[in-house]
Amino acid sequence: MGTNPMENSIHTDKHILFALPFPEPTIQQALAALTTAHPSYRTTYRETAFKDPTMDESAWSDVDILVTFNCLPASPSLCPRLKLIHFISAGIDAHLSHSMLTSTDILVTTSTGIHGPPMAEWFILGLLAHQTRLPDLYDLQKKREWGNPLKFTSRKSLQGQRLGILGYGGIGRQAARLAQALGMEVLAYTASAKKTPESRRLTTYTIPGTGDVDGTIPSEWFSGTDKSSLHHFLSQKLDILLIAVPLSTSTRHLLGWEEFEVLATNSPSSAPNGGGPFVSNLARGDVVVQEDLVSSLNNGVIRGAAVDVADPEPLPSESTLWDAKNVLVTPHVSGVTADYLKHVVDILNINLGKWEGGESLINLFKRRRGY
């Protein structure tokens, strides 16, 4: 089984602190299930501010496990018993420079995998809204006009189109599952090569019955961390590009004008009357050079885009992204669902079982990689 990294590290009174910007009733049922499964743990819930949260310094002294969104001890010295931090988000780029991550070896886990189904649904929503010209149809409805059906005959079915997924984690794999059901061909791109069935298998949390755990959906798999590898992937005759990579120093501004041109130049959707490829960003706003995305839309390099992220957030009212051609902008809500916290606790529940059994935890944050 291996050595338990937590063995003899936690006091008999094992304390889990939930410091979250939500009212406690939203998570009570999940907490009850957690304490039933692990009765040796005591849980405390503290509702924190959504922005710049703080707590009394004394509140950290007996905490063994912290479940949080963005509330962290100001210093490692305040939490001598803390051995595990579980973030309820998948990306924790906002905390990479915090002393709790840079000056300790405290285990850190994330909620990667929770977001797959709702974010993949959002991706399909944005894509279908564009493909079917839903905004135009809605305008006709608001005007109480039936409209001329012949004006909508140019739209193409998604069947047979090629979808490139940049970042084939939990979100990308569920998007691939839905895309395959719609008759699309899926191509995947990851930082490291995935040449064997074992390497293509996803080891992070996956909601049962979703995604592509074995990594068998993509017809082709590409990899690399350099520009030439990325451009090679973007030149694979893609009709649609889904951006689903984590934000790190290596992915910041990964896609700009040059990349959009490579994508469009090689896309079958750029043929006469095709309009160009479609781009969806579910990663982080900083992964894309935003002004280059706007220019690509306004100049017809890409035919449309759907973005649930922006740079910065909140997106200022004067941003040119709001008025770009054929763009759907939503305020970082694609991963939000009523059962979100239930899945957060499910990950913690799994990891407590692994922890007690001396096994490696799932969804471990790798400090060296930054995600």
From TrEMBL:
One Pfam family recorded for the sequence: 2-Hacid_dh_C
InterPro entries found in the cross-reference section: D-isomer_DH_CS1 (IPR029752), D-isomer_DH_NAD-bd (IPR006140), NAD(P)-bd_dom_sf (IPR036291)
The keyword NAD appears for this protein: yes
Keyword vocabulary terms for this entry: NAD, Oxidoreductase
Oxidoreductase keyword on record: yes
Annotated D-isomer specific 2-hydroxyacid dehydrogenase NAD-binding domain residues: 127-197, 227-334
Superkingdom as given in the UniProt entry: Eukaryota
GO function term, MF aspect, one: NAD binding
Protein name as annotated: D-isomer specific 2-hydroxyacid dehydrogenase NAD-binding domain-containing protein
Organism: Endocarpon pusillum (strain Z07020 / HMAS-L-300199) (Lichen-forming fungus)
